[in-house]
Amino acid sequence: MCKFIFITGGVVSSLGKGISGASIGKLLQLRGLKVNMIKCDPYINVDPGTLSPYQHGEVFVTADGAEADLDLGTYERFLDVPMTRRNTNTAGSIYQTVINKERHGEYNGVTVQVIPHVTDEIKTRFIPFEKDYDVTIIEIGGTVGDIESLPFLEAARQFRADKGRENVMTVHATLIPYLRTSDELKTKPTQHSVNKLREIGIEPDVLICRTEKPISDGMKRKLSLFCSVAPEAVIEARDAASIYQVPESFEKQGLTDLILKRLSLKGKKKNDGSWFKFINKSLSYKKEINIGISGKYSELKDAYKSVAESLNLAGMSNKVKVKIRYVNTEKDPIPQSLKGLDGIIVPGGFGKRGIEGKILSIKYARENKIPFLGICLGMQCAVIEIARDMAGFKDADSCEFNAKTSHPVITMMEEQKKVKNLGGTMRLGNYDAKILKGTLAYKLYQKEAITERHRHRYEYNTDYVKELEKYGLIVSAWHKGILPEIVELKDHPFFIGGQFHPEFASRPLRPHPFFDGLVKAAIKFNGNK
User: Fold this and answer.
1) I need a labelling partner for 168 at 20 to 30 A (CA). Which of 223, 339, 388, 466 fits?
2) Cis omega before residue 513 (within 30°)?
């Protein structure tokens, strides 16, 4: 029978519930259990696809084309389990389903209410993996006390009663603030947070306490007393050099054994520690390279979360530390802000703002033979830059930014011209492509057939492919022979772009070929300085 672990949060947001949940999942995996995760977001948007990255960071795309919270990327990187649209739920999607059922007469004329109709719908979203996994970990977004989260928390309370206490437990992430003026940690916010959770009818089994300073045994006993959890269930969560060190920290505090005992799970008595050893060894490397991410959302690093993680994972596999420099292509001077870099990434995005800075970044990488990777819009900007500067099409542009350009090297996909609604209507999720042998792309992938995740409306206009080939820009992978998927530049040590998002497929021990190749090229470039 599948067991369930709810992850809730209190005091403040951004406590790392996703990392805590994924770390617990990894620990259970290392004990031989099958684990999957679900995210519940309380906002009314049906999905985050139409949200600005400044609101919730990057939009993660699942293999089956769902636009989801960035926490699903954390789940995938930790667990190496592919996320689907069944792994992501929002209040908007819940209410949309309930309203559609009401419109179709499925409630037989009764008054539709939050309880039981909304909470019943939420509970159906908790169980899609119960037949295939030993444990389902369910993260409820937001903070206890938020009005938006109440239906999800009420559903969690009911779910515990439905499934039995022996099959469901709650892990509550909270904050222990440090007051510098008095040089002390304060437990009162956590006490209030747990009391608020109790008012809803949920008793936490474990407290994960974010803190700057070590929590003493005396403080753990105090939290145990006031929050009705065992002292050994008060888990310290201090900032780590890498998020991938968090599972080992939890393991050393006995959290895995506590969960196994609480849920009567039969996992291996001990993991071999090989995953911990790999992570710790990778953090001890001394050599450094500098990679720039040139985009317009650079003030919020979470906007490029998976890109940054992919660089770090590629660095780990190549025994080098990757220092990331975020360059704002709308505000920072280009190319001055790119000086000293060993590699440049232009990531995905939407809209005209910051585009000229992205194009200048690509020009700088091309002319100075700096390793370059273009992702989705970054690939499109590479096509524009080469069309303008090498082919002499001075007004070359994307129809997204200039519908009147005489050289629309990037144009809207035909099927997208019929789309009216913005949400969930792009080319989303996995699509196949075939790589041409003898290309840089083939050297990186070491195979012809690939599958990658997409999120775009515009594409490289094939009317210009032959013309730009004259200047060294070749299409090295196609979807069904009609849609360009990868471009690369001849006579450059590493210049490649993909119409897809490779950052969603990087894993510890298995970085994506694009990022692995970029880091290798950056190491070589650094050594030739």
Assistant:
1) 223
2) no
CA-based Rg of the chain, rounded to a whole angstrom? 25
Maximum C-alpha span of the chain: 75
Tokens standing for 257?
A: 């054994």
Question: d(Cα 33, Cα 26) in Å, to the nearest integer?
Answer: 9
Half-sphere exposure (Cβ direction) of 203: Cα atoms closer than 13 Å: 10
Q: Which of 172, 479, 501, 512 is catalytic?
A: 501
Nearest alpha-carbon partner for 457 in 415, 397, 406: 415
Choosing from 209, 452, 503, 512, the catalytic residue is: 503
How far apart are alpha carbons 83 and 60 in whole angstroms?
10
On whether the CB atoms of residues 346 and 495 are closer than 8 A, the answer is: no
What are φ and ψ of residue 270, in 5° steps? -155, 140
Long-range interactions of 154-158: CB distance < 8 A, separation 24+: 154/114, 154/115, 154/119, 154/200, 154/201, 155/119, 155/120, 155/122, 155/123, 155/126, 156/6, 156/8, 156/202, 157/200, 157/201, 157/202, 158/119, 158/123
Q: Are 383 and 409 in contact (CB under 8 A)?
A: yes
**Encoded tokens for 402:** 């200039």
Total Cβ atoms within 10 A of residue 517:
21
Q: Which residues pair with 458 in a beta bridge?
A: 412
Inter-axis angle of helices 150-163 and 188-200, to 10 degrees? 70
User: Is 503 one of the catalytic residues?
Assistant: yes
User: Is 184 among the residues known to form the active site?
Assistant: no
Residue-wise pLDDT for 292-324, tens only, equals 999 998 888 889 999 999 999 999 999 999 999
Burial of 8 (0-12, 13-18, 19+ CB in 10 A): buried
Q: Which of 40, 209, 227, 376 is catalytic?
A: 376
Contact 378, 436 (CB under 8 A): no
Beta strands in 440-507 (DSSP E): 449-456, 458-460, 473-479, 483-489, 495-498
pTM for the model stands at 0.93
Three-class SS state of 90:
strand
CA torsion angle 471 474 480 485 (round to 10): -110
What's the CA gap between 58 and 455, in Å, rounded? 12
The pLDDT tens digits of the residues spanning 159-209 come to 999 999 999 999 999 999 988 888 888 999 999 999 999 999 999 999 999
Question: How would you list the strands of the sheet with 408-412, edge to edge?
Answer: 397-398, 408-412, 458-460
